[in-house]
Amino acid sequence: MKKRILIITQNFPPEIGSAANRMKGICQALNEVADVTVWTTEPHYPQKDLYRQADFWEELPQDIKIRRIKTTSANFEQNFLRRFLLYLEVLFLFFLN
To answer: How far is CA 43 from CA 23, 33, 46, 81, in A?
Structure first.
């Protein structure tokens, strides 16, 4: 029986960037020895509208369970308080799920 691993991350594909790519690689490596489930936010970096294109969603790992939550705040990069509120919102929504 395989172990189960839950990974909670803000950065996961189809978001672009090195953090999302590292998380994808870590999840794929762990999925070889365990059942991996990822809890993450809806993609919104650098622009949320960018992810409406189907091209971004084709390269997702197929054997990893991914649960996404939708956050109300999308513009958080510049303001420390907004970023903190986003993290609190994500924490609260994960507890609800």
So the answer is: 14, 27, 9, 20
Query: Which domains, and CATH codes, for the chain?
Result: 3-96 (3.40.50)
pTM above 0.85, yes or no: no
Reading the block at residue 83, the tokens are: 């970023």
Per-residue pLDDT of 5-64, as tens digits, reads 999 888 888 887 788 889 989 999 999 999 999 998 888 766 666 667 666 666 667 788
User: In this structure, what are the phi and psi dihedrals at residue 28, rounded to the nearest 5 degrees?
Assistant: -65, -40
3-state secondary structure 22-60: HHHHHHHHHHCCEEEEEEEECCCCCCHHHHHCHHHHCCC
CB 66 within 8 A of CB 97: no
89/53 Cα distance (integer angstroms): 26
